[in-house]
Specification:
four-stranded mixed beta sheet; 10 strands
Length: 197
C-alpha cells in the first residue's frame, strides 16, 4: 500500500505545494524562500524518513509568518491524507533528543485528534532574521492539520538554533516511529474503538 499524498494550497498570502511519502528515505526538495526554515524542514524530512517535496511562495515582503504557518498546514494535510485511516500504524512514540548542550523531548499520538502542548522558550526573538515565535506556529499548524497530538518540551539548552533544531529533529523521530507499520497490528486500526479520531 502506497502511503503518499500531494496537497496544493493557494490563498492571497501564499501558494504551497507539498508531496510526501511516509515510507521514504528522508529525501527532500524544499524551497520556501526562508533559509532557516528550509534548514529545519530538511531536518524534519531527513530524520522522519518521510520524503518531502515542498514549494512555497509567500508574502515575504510582509514577514515570514504566513509562509511558515501555511507550509505547516499543507505538510499536515499531506501527512493526514497519506496515512488514510491509520490502519496498522504504531501510533505512539516519545523521545529525548540531545544536540550539544540542548535536550528536547517530543511525544506524539497519531490519533486523528489534533492538539499541541508547547513548553519551549527562546532567549531571543530571532535566529538570524527568523522569528523564534514561528517555530511554535509551525508545529501548531502541523499538529492541527495532520490530526496528531504533539507534546514538545525543551528540557534545557542555551543556543536558540540548537533549541529549534532539536524540536524539529525530535518531532521527526517520533513521527518516524509512530507512523511505521506495526506487523503485530495485522492491519488493524490501533484503537479499541475500531477507528481513530
Amino acid at each position: 500500500m502506497s502511503r503518499t499524498a500531494s496537497v496544493s494550497r493557494k490563498t492571497n498570502e501564499t501558494s504551497v505545494a507539498v508531496a510526501v511519502d511516509i515510507d521514504g528515505t528522508g529525501a527532500s526538495t524544499i524551497s520556501t524562500g526562508v533559509g532557516f526554515f528550509d534548514h529545519m524542514l530538511e531536518q524534519l524530512s531527513r530524520h522522519s524518513l518521510i520524503d518531502m517535496d515542498i514549494k512555497t511562495e509567500g508574502d515575504l515582503h510582509v514577514d515570514d509568518h504566513h509562509t511558515v504557518e501555511d507550509t505547516g498546514i499543507a505538510i499536515g494535510q499531506a501527512i493526514a491524507k497519506a496515512l488514510g485511516d491509520r490502519r496498522g500504524i504504531t501510533r505512539y512514540a516519545s523521545l529525548d533528543l540531545a544536540m550539544d548542550e540542548t535536550m528536547t523531548r517530543a511525544a506524539v499520538d497519531v490519533s486523528g485528534r489534533p492538539f499541541l502542548v508547547w513548553n519551549v522558550a527562546f532567549s531571543a526573538p530571532k535566529i538570524g532574521t527568523f522569528d523564534t515565535e514561528l517555530v511554535r506556529e509551525f508545529f501548531n499548524a502541523l499538529a492541527q492539520h495532520a490530526g496528531i497530538t504533539l507534546h514538545i518540551q525543551n528540557i534545557y539548552g542555551a543556543n536558540n538554533h540548537h533549541i529549534s533544531e532539536t524540536c524539529f529533529k525530535a518531532v521527526a523521530r517520533v513521527l518516524r516511529t509512530a507512523t511505521e507499520i506495526d506487523p503485530r497490528q495485522a492491519g488493524r486500526v490501533p484503537s479499541t474503538k475500531g477507528s481513530l479520531a
